[in-house]
Design a protein that fits this description.
259 residues, alpha+beta, YmcC-like fold, seven-stranded antiparallel β-sheet, 3 helices, globular, disordered N terminus
C-alpha cells in the first residue's frame, strides 16, 4: 500500500513538472512572438495595411519574382519584414537593378520617391523633390482610400548619382480603389486586387489630367498589371502574372536615389 502510494505521488510530481515545463515553453514562445510582433505596424479595427497589396509577401519574395510579357518585377523591401512602421522598397525590373521604381512608407502614407532614367545606366534616375503620397497607409477593409492631391510634383534628374536639372508633372491626383476579386491569370489566378490610380500632368485645380498610370495590386503579390493612359486612352499595358524562381542580386548603386 505504501509503495503504491509512493509510485502514485512520484507520477503526480512528474506530470506536474511536465505541465509546468510546457507552460513555461509556451509562455516563452508567446513572449518571443510578442517581442517580434511589437516592431511591426498594425492598423485600427476596420482598416487594413495597404502594404499587403503593394509588395509581394515575405515568404514568397525571398526566392521568387513576377514575370510575364514584359520586364520582370523583383521586390526588395527594407526592413525586410511584413511590415515595419516605416521603410522603403524597390520594384526592380531586372536582377541587375537596371530599371526600378522606388517607393517609401511610414505610419500615415505610402509614397512614390523615384524611378529609373536610362535603363543601361542605373546611376541615372529621377527623384521627387518631396515624396508624393499615393495613398493612406491604413485603408478601409472594404472601401477605397481617400483621394490625395499633390501640388508639389517637382522632381530632379540625376546622372552619376548627381542632380543636373529639374522638371514638374503639373499637379497629381491619386487614390486606391476598394478591393475586388480579379482573375490575374498566370500563376496567380483569382486574387483580391486594389487598383492604384496615379493621375499626373493635371492643372492647378487638380483637373484635366493628361496622364494616368493604373497599378493593379494583388494582395500578397504586388503589382501584376500596369496601364498607362493618355487623355483616357490606353497607350501601354504590362502584365506580370507568373511566379518565377529567382532573386535580384543588386539594388541601385546611388544611395541618394532611395535614402
Amino acid at each position: 500500500m505504501i509503495g503504491h502510494l509512493q509510485q502514485k505521488c512520484a507520477l503526480t510530481l512528474v506530470l506536474a513538472c511536465f505541465v509546468s515545463g510546457a507552460g513555461m515553453f509556451a509562455y516563452g514562445k508567446d513572449k518571443n512572438q510578442a517581442n517580434s510582433d511589437s516592431s511591426l505596424f498594425s492598423c485600427p479595427a476596420g482598416q487594413e495595411d495597404a502594404m499587403q497589396y503593394f509588395v509581394m509577401r515575405k515568404d514568397l519574395r525571398e526566392d521568387h519574382y513576377l514575370s510575364g510579357e514584359a520586364n520582370p518585377s523583383y521586390t526588395k523591401i527594407f526592413p525586410d519584414v511584413d511590415f515595419a512602421p516605416s521603410g522603403y522598397w524597390f520594384w526592380l525590373k531586372s536582377p541587375e537593378a537596371h530599371g526600378f521604381d522606388i517607393k517609401t512608407f511610414d505610419e500615415k502614407y505610402i509614397y512614390i520617391r523615384g524611378t529609373e532614367l536610362e535603363w543601361k545606366d542605373n546611376s541615372t534616375f529621377k527623384r521627387k523633390e518631396q515624396d508624393n503620397p499615393l495613398t493612406e497607409r491604413c485603408v478601409p477593409v472594404n472601401a477605397a482610400s481617400q483621394v490625395e492631391r499633390v501640388s508639389n510634383a517637382r522632381f530632379s534628374f540625376y546622372a552619376n548619382c548627381k542632380p543636373y536639372k529639374s522638371s514638374s508633372l503639373g499637379t497629381i491626383v491619386d487614390n486606391l480603389d476598394a478591393p475586388e476579386m480579379m482573375d490575374a491569370g498566370g500563376d496567380i489566378g483569382q486574387v483580391s486586387t486594389r487598383v492604384l490610380h496615379y493621375r499626373f500632368n493635371c492643372d492647378k485645380h487638380f483637373e484635366n489630367c493628361k496622364d494616368e498610370e493604373q497599378s493593379f495590386l494583388g494582395k500578397g503579390y504586388g503589382r501584376w498589371k500596369w496601364l498607362h493612359l493618355k487623355y483616357g486612352e490606353v497607350v501601354k499595358t504590362t502584365v506580370v502574372n507568373r511566379v518565377s524562381k529567382g532573386t535580384a542580386h543588386a539594388i541601385p548603386p546611388c544611395e541618394n536615389a532611395y535614402k
